[in-house]
Amino acid sequence: MAQAVEEWYKQMPIITRSYLTAAIVTTVGCSLEIISPYHLYLNPTLVVKHYEFWRLITNFFYFRKMDLDFLFHMFFLARYCKLLEENSFRGRTADFFYMLLFGATVLTIIVLVGVMIPFVSESFAKIFFLSNSLTFMMVYVWSKQNPFIHMSFLGLFTFTAAYLPWVLLGFSVLVGTSAWVDLLGMIAGHAYYFLEDVYPRMTGRRPLKTPSFIKALFTDETVVVTWPANVRFAPPPAEDDHQD
């Protein structure tokens, strides 16, 4: 069993494995009181006035207490992050990393602006960690890129992947959790989907082109084509064959 888990972990693509590891280590560390969540959460005042810039990153690694909700989000993180990296972004690790960076930036800006807007500022002020929202963004992007895949929710009903974010949003409302977290993920996911897939088809321009310095951090995967041993290729025709 342990060997199977180890093999499954090693077979994960680099970004998925790194994010999943950081999320589990951070959440477990907080549960064991090795790390304090108060040093991780997003606090605009501490970021701007006390230069605690690490909070812009660490708030995406903590998934609250270790309970059923934590396992639920770890499953979605491992599944849909892996599906995106291995399929839609296969051989484009830098582009996938840039997608996550874009999503994290959009989510952070929404919260920072939201706390300054009357009537909704109180709701945004209660959002201290954006890890769940970033996970939901990945689910949204995957559903947009694979809209016709048939899925089942707890064996109760079937639907296509295009409706997956809405099904999960409805489930969150039913169990009494805040819908804001899921809605933020959907907004960030739709922003990426529009700018990366829809807008380029409309205008021929791609505004989310991955910067060269991010591409330099990752080496592109080399696609190797192997032929079966029994395949033989015909030799090129001799020069005499082309002469009359």
Automatic annotation (TrEMBL):
<comment type="function">
    <text>May be involved in the degradation process of specific misfolded endoplasmic reticulum (ER) luminal proteins.</text>
</comment>
<dbReference type="GO" id="GO:0030968">
    <property type="term" value="P:endoplasmic reticulum unfolded protein response"/>
</dbReference>
<feature type="transmembrane region" description="Helical">
    <location>
        <begin position="174"/>
        <end position="195"/>
    </location>
</feature>
<keyword id="KW-0812">Transmembrane</keyword>
<dbReference type="Pfam" id="PF04511">
    <property type="entry name" value="DER1"/>
</dbReference>
<dbReference type="InterPro" id="IPR035952">
    <property type="entry name" value="Rhomboid-like_sf"/>
</dbReference>
<protein>
    <recommendedName>
        <fullName>Derlin</fullName>
    </recommendedName>
</protein>
<feature type="transmembrane region" description="Helical">
    <location>
        <begin position="19"/>
        <end position="41"/>
    </location>
</feature>
<keyword id="KW-1133">Transmembrane helix</keyword>
<comment type="function">
    <text>May be involved in the degradation of misfolded endoplasmic reticulum (ER) luminal proteins.</text>
</comment>
<dbReference type="GO" id="GO:0005047">
    <property type="term" value="F:signal recognition particle binding"/>
</dbReference>
<dbReference type="InterPro" id="IPR007599">
    <property type="entry name" value="DER1"/>
</dbReference>
<keyword id="KW-0472">Membrane</keyword>
<feature type="transmembrane region" description="Helical">
    <location>
        <begin position="96"/>
        <end position="117"/>
    </location>
</feature>
<keyword id="KW-0256">Endoplasmic reticulum</keyword>
<comment type="similarity">
    <text>Belongs to the derlin family.</text>
</comment>
<dbReference type="GO" id="GO:0005789">
    <property type="term" value="C:endoplasmic reticulum membrane"/>
</dbReference>
<feature type="transmembrane region" description="Helical">
    <location>
        <begin position="148"/>
        <end position="168"/>
    </location>
</feature>
<feature type="transmembrane region" description="Helical">
    <location>
        <begin position="123"/>
        <end position="141"/>
    </location>
</feature>
<dbReference type="GO" id="GO:0036503">
    <property type="term" value="P:ERAD pathway"/>
</dbReference>
